[in-house]
Amino acid sequence: MEYVTLFISAVIVNNFVLTKFLGLCIFFGVSKNLSASIGMGMAVTSVMTLSSMLAWVVYNFVLVPLNLTFMTTAVFVLLIASFVQLLEMVIKKQAPALYNMWGIYLLLIATNCVVLAVPLLNAESSFSFLKSVVYAVGSGLGFALAIILMASLREKLRLADVPKPLEGLGIAFILAGMLALAFTGFSGMITL
Amino acid sequence: MKNLWDIFKKGLIVENPIFVLALSLCPALAVTASAITALTMGLSVMFVITANNVVVSLTRKLVNPKVRVPVYITSIATIVTLVQLLLQAFAPELYKALGIYLALIVVFAIILARAEVFASKNSVIPSFFDGLGMGAGFTLALLLIGCVRELLGAGSIFGIPVIGDWYDPALIMILPAGGFILIGYLVGGFKMLTEYMEKAEAKKGDR
């Protein structure tokens, strides 16, 4: 039960994009079209899950025993960036079809706040391994949900008559605000 | 001297990191529910960006271009850790309020972008001013958002009530949704401002 609430909280109640403002660069950059945002959502979810596992192992078996927790930020950034590079190479070689689908998104998320935030939050709240994984999967799916919703909205926006200065980024922000307002309705549903 | 001022100045409006370049938006929303956290965040970023520009500029001839990005990231991560430890020691409350966003300065696109675009090609002093200007532009943008949100959402600035009791605070401004909407309008406003300035400039040229 504990895991279910953690999962739902990560997907909806504490949605990373709309209540914690993480991953906004990708969120606004990629949400212009729907298929790209589905690819991005998948890429972020899988990278987030894998890097959280890796970061959990490094944090609990290397940094904590050696009393090096003050270096967490630096270690995690380098760890994730190099891991994503490696993942990109492996996928390119082993699964070219998959690479064609979302290979380009991988490099974009190598140093990204949303991917770095999950391992950091896991370390901060000293989650167990399983809990970290559940949290990472939930956060990734929450990100995917937000970006897919946003892309669908923005595709409709092409038909709308937007005031000139607000075209592009301006209206995208206002739209995200409305979406965030809708998600505010979930707040307080689960308290962790 | 004029050149250095120009380098400093462009970060403020023409290339404002938040409103014009739209880089590093995450902190612009996350820590701007009150003016004081916005200011701390802005100053931290200003420090990191300036220090990193100096480091990158100093080492630009030693670093092989092929490994430059990992080197930049290491340098940024070191400086950010420094800021984290300093804030934790001297301003523990602010450190707590900024929370995870302080550690996330490491991955702010604006810092890496300045290292790549400017500091890796210029000498130390221009790089220093570039970092300072970009940092100042970032701080100003954050402070503006922070002040407006705190004013409308709580009726105060820096925790000091400025509007009387008659004002019923609009809670939405402190919530995430208000932040998004406000930035949307500010981006639009900035676009109008820069267009107006360009037109004025063009008129001057005609004469």
Automatic annotation (TrEMBL), chain A:
It is a multi-pass membrane protein. InterPro entries: Ion_transpt_RnfA/RsxA (IPR011293), NqrDE/RnfAE (IPR003667), NqrDE/RnfAE_oxidrdctase (IPR050133). Pfam families: Rnf-Nqr (PF02508). HAMAP family: RsxA_RnfA (MF_00459). GO terms for cellular component: endomembrane system; plasma membrane. It is an enzyme of class 7 (translocase). It comes from Acetobacterium wieringae. This is Ion-translocating oxidoreductase complex subunit A. It is found in: Cell membrane; Endomembrane system.
TrEMBL record, chain B:
Coiled coil: none annotated. It comes from the Bacteria. It is a multi-pass membrane protein. GO terms for biological process: electron transport chain. The chain crosses the membrane at residues 12-30, 36-59, 71-91, 97-115, 127-146, 166-187. Keywords: Cell membrane, Electron transport, Membrane, Translocase, Transmembrane, Transmembrane helix, Transport. It holds the Pfam family Rnf-Nqr. It is found in: Cell membrane; Endomembrane system. Its EC number is 7.-.-.-. The keyword Translocase applies. One of its GO terms (cellular component) is plasma membrane. The complex is composed of six subunits: RnfA, RnfB, RnfC, RnfD, RnfE and RnfG. NCBIfam families: PRK12405.1 (NF009070), rnfE (TIGR01948). Part of a membrane-bound complex that couples electron transfer with translocation of ions across the membrane. HAMAP family: RsxE_RnfE (MF_00478). Belongs to the NqrDE/RnfAE family. This is Ion-translocating oxidoreductase complex subunit E. It comes from Acetobacterium wieringae. The gene is rnfE_1.
